[in-house]
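FORM 7B: Structural annotation worksheet

SECTION A. Query
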Amino acid sequence: MIAGRYTRVREIGRGGMGAVWLGRDERLGRDVALKRIGVLPGADSTDLARAEREAHLAARLHHPHVVSVFDVVADESGDGRWLVMEHVDGPDCGRLVREHGALAPDDAARVLRQVADALRTAHEAGIVHRDVKPSNILLDRNGQAKLTDFGIARLGSDPSLTQTGMVTGSPTYLAPEIASGARGDEAADVWSLGATAYHLLTGRPPYETGDALSTIYRVVQDDPPRADVGWLTPLLEGTLVKDPQQRWTMAEVQDFVRDRREPDGWAPPAAVVPAPATREETLATSVVPLGRRRRPVRSALLVLLVALLVVGGFVLGRQLTDSSGDPPAASPSASASPTPTPTPSESESADPGPTAEGMEAFIRDYVRAVGDDPAVSWQMLTPKFQTESGGFDTYRAFWDDATNGRVLSISADPESLVVSYQVRFDNFDNGPGPTVLQLRYEGDGQYLIDGETSEGFTPAG
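SECTION B. Predicted structure
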């Protein structure tokens, strides 16, 4: 038992430098993921600052494609820390590719679009992830991508937590400027997402040599990796560009992959996805574009100096992971400038926009989430409506006793984005009248609750 509340069930993997356990929140009766923050290489104590940093940064991001961090608690000894996180009941993308091979472009695009959306939100909040890679992208039972492990992320205004001589991140996915010893900004995440796309689409990581020193050298000195991956080929050419100022922005990545919509009903292979659970955990947020700061690319001489420091006894913050054992891809001639976004053909499906069916499904999911865990349903509100609801403590107190929600009747108007429904909960008197909610459409079939006009509802404040 951790902090008198969380029970460890079994170890289910490794996240960055810490073990990840399936756990149980005995107070709320839900599964959680518990990540034990381990000891940094070369250090002799638990990196408590790193645990609190990850909790702080991840808690700032309320997004459907970012793994939620609920709490950070001390372990039994009081010396270590555990992150209490959303449990994603599915594989990471590295495992998916190892077990089932490279993804088709349409399937990869769905994952990349969701991760790009999450990263753009992080960048808008001033957070650079700095360790985007397949093993840090989890897939839930519905095939939704969840970005995790913000342990080496940083705020633009924060001093670095990196120890002297330490290169943070997984070498094969590092942007050249970071491999050269620079700090790196949002553009570094664009490169890492491109390197991740290369892995998903080809079935092997870029630049993989099996040796950290050689990998770092190749990242900086070799031409960017290229591959013919169908309609996503321009994505590799636009993101895997050595000059960060010539690289696509995350907004451009987002726009490109949104131009092609994946077939309805896509999900990861059934062999690695557990049976559906009883509740959906859907989070959401809005995004605002953010410009990039200029960061010069360092010379090859500095790369060699960094490499010598690693060999001479300094530590590498992240060990090579997700290696498939395959030889690295050949490096044909590189294109240093982004390729214009192609226009989708008329035969390709576009975002249908709001639909009555989609709105009704969203409300049914919301009602289910309210009865299971108000902390989950809270994330289905816009920031505006969260304020009107009086903040999370008020919201949770209001819904805390409600269980087993059932929608008795429902009608939705896609033009006005208004939905009216009659609902019943156990242990809760919802009143005789219908609940009337104003939704906001987020695109890609996603909605948020933006207001309520039910009789008797009075906005807080």
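SECTION C. Observations
The first helix runs from residue 48 to 59. Residues 39-46, 155-167, 261-349 have pLDDT under 50 and may be disordered.

SECTION D. Sign-off
Analyst initials: ____
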